């Protein structure tokens, strides 16, 4: 019997502890597995029974093999993952130095197992196994170190790498390093990394935070924003919106942060994709946003949240100057369906009453509507309301939770965003596909916003025909694939592939010859406005050329 007593846990070599080849070896030798997953499950259970700890010492991933003859089929590569794997005991320590100085012929433990792909290239076979340890096996140590599923997780990426990188911002070089470690397509990790690699290739300043599940190579959460989104959040930080997309997928959720651009439209400033039911996403997303664009921390004055967002206290801490509001129309819908659920009668007075409650323009009007509720709604609902919504009335009743000076309708803005997401995202996409769709949507939304005909009509309404014609022509060049943008201390730089043009912070002046000679808005101003969310129709663009305006003499 093997010495397994607690007193022998030191791991000191025990010469002579080598057991003769026995049943254990017979059980394993020549055993066949049709997938790495099958082997991992078998080996986890086997190690658990024997309280032995093995780790992968060397391995040759099938995806990185070169073949002189016909290569194995892709599904086989996917299933088997390795052409050979050598697992050794945790007490291996087989360095040359240790061997040279050790009083024993082999200072570390020599227990090991070798698995190889069969010559037919369709299964893994245990080709060597040496299971005698030169030390005691300690159940306490085993319980401490053993991680079920580790072999399987490690077959995609080294788990220690994902643990280390998790919750940190990653850059292009990190993603490329992870890609070079990546041995299989498990859990879509490789696909996600490939999308990130593309993102960084076109936008090296994008901000990405990856969270992996602990000890697993599964992406739990991805936070990301492109450098365009960063520009938008710097320019329009006053009001933010945070909501979850409804009905995206069974597996994961999409959260977006929006701002309001110069034309009053909701624009995305950050995305967070996460496994469903990941807690406290508001805190994680806002913290990541503030880390990416630190200026916004003190600038945000108001944040409107979707009705189901929890842990609102995170806002106080991360955006100390921001008032919290809850999307009023979502609160109304919630109240109405809760009333049905709690047994409200079919009563056509209910909806108008709830609307009056939410839209109350004075505390007295709110109090009155709240009183009326008691008469037509069941007691249970009134109690629910008093517990959940009364204490937060300042966040959703119109009198307190007024929107803004700029008359933005928060509910409409969130609804529009939801519709745009539904139109842009593939039906039940993978995480990687969803990221691709979202990034494409950014580019597409620009095109959508540039309604040249409508803009030209606006300019014709205030300009004389000739300058209006020039402006229309320039609008036609605003969308240009080769433009590259850069923020500077003075404003913006635009490269069109040949030359570079400088514009002021307010985007009303440009260094190009078109602007200098006509003092009318040029293609560069339009393109940069499009990019940064400023309105393309802006009478301010004509301030320096009053003669172009209708009614000027
Ligand atoms: Zn050992
Ligand atoms: Zn210009």
Automatic annotation (TrEMBL):
Record flagged with keyword RNA-binding: no
A Pfam family it matches: DUF5575_C
Superkingdom of the organism of origin: Eukaryota
Record-level Gene Ontology MF annotations: zinc ion binding
Protein name as annotated: Zinc finger SWIM-type containing 9
Chain ranges of the SWIM-type domain: 501-533
Record PROSITE patterns: ZF_SWIM (PS50966)
Keywords: Metal-binding, Zinc, Zinc-finger
Lineage: Eukaryota, Metazoa, Chordata, Craniata, Vertebrata
Keyword Metal-binding: yes
Annotated stretches, region: Disordered: 1-22
């Amino acid at each position: 019997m093997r010495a397994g007593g607690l007193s022998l846990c030191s791991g000191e070599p025990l010469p002579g502890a080598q057991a003769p080849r026995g049943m254990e070896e017979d059980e394993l030798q020549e055993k066949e597995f049709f997938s790495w997953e099958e082997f991992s499950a078998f080996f986890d259970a086997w190690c658990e029974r024997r309280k032995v700890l093995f780790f992968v010492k060397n391995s040759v991933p099938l995806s990185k093999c070169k073949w002189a003859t016909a290569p194995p089929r892709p599904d086989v590569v996917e299933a088997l993952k390795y052409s050979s794997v050598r697992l050794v005991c945790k007490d291996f320590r087989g360095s040359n130095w240790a061997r040279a100085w050790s009083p024993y012929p082999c200072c570390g433990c020599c227990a090991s197992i070798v698995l190889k792909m069969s010559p037919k290239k369709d299964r893994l076979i245990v080709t060597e196994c040496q299971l005698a340890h030169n030390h005691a096996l300690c159940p306490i140590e085993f319980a401490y170190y053993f991680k079920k599923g580790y072999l399987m997780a490690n077959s995609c990426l080294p788990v220690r790498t994902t643990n280390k990188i998790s919750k940190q911002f990653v850059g292009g070089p990190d993603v490329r390093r992870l890609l070079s470690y990546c041995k299989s397509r498990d859990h879509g990790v490789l696909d996600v990394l490939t999308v990130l690699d593309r993102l960084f290739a076109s936008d090296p300043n994008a901000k990405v935070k990856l969270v992996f599940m602990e000890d697993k190579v599964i992406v739990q959460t991805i936070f990301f924003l492109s450098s365009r989104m960063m520009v938008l959040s710097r320019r329009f930080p006053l009001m933010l919106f945070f909501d979850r997309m409804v009905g995206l997928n069974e597996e994961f959720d999409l959260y977006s942060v929006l701002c309001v651009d110069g034309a009053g439209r909701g624009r995305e400033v950050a995305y967070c994709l996460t496994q469903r039911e990941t807690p406290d996403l508001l805190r994680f997303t806002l913290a990541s946003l503030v880390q990416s664009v630190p200026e916004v921390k003190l600038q945000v004055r108001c944040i409107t949240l979707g009705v189901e967002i929890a842990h609102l206290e995170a806002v106080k801490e991360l955006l100390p100057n921001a008032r919290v509001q809850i999307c009023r129309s979502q609160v109304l819908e919630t109240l109405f369906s809760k009333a049905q659920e709690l047994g409200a009668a079919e009563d056509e007075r209910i909806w108008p009453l709830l609307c009056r409650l939410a839209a109350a323009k004075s505390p007295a009007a709110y109090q009155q509507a709240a009183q009326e509720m008691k008469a037509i709604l069941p007691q249970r609902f009134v109690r629910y309301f008093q517990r959940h919504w009364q204490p937060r009335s300042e966040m959703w009743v119109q009198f307190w939770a007024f929107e803004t000076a700029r008359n933005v309708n928060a509910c409409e803005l969130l609804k529009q965003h939801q519709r745009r997401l539904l139109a842009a995202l593939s039906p039940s996409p993978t995480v990687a596909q969803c990221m691709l769709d979202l990034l494409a949507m950014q580019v597409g939304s620009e095109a959508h916003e540039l309604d040249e005909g409508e803009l030209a009509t606006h300019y014709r309404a205030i300009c004389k025909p000739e300058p209006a014609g020039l402006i229309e022509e320039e609008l036609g060049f605003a969308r240009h694939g080769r433009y590259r943008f850069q923020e500077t201390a003075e404003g913006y730089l635009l490269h069109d592939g040949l030359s570079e043009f400088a514009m002021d912070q307010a985007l009303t002046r440009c260094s190009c010859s078109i602007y200098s000679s006509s003092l009318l808005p040029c293609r560069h101003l339009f393109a940069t406005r499009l990019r940064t969310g400023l309105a393309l129709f802006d009478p301010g663009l004509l301030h320096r050329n009053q003669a172009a305006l209708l009614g000027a003499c």
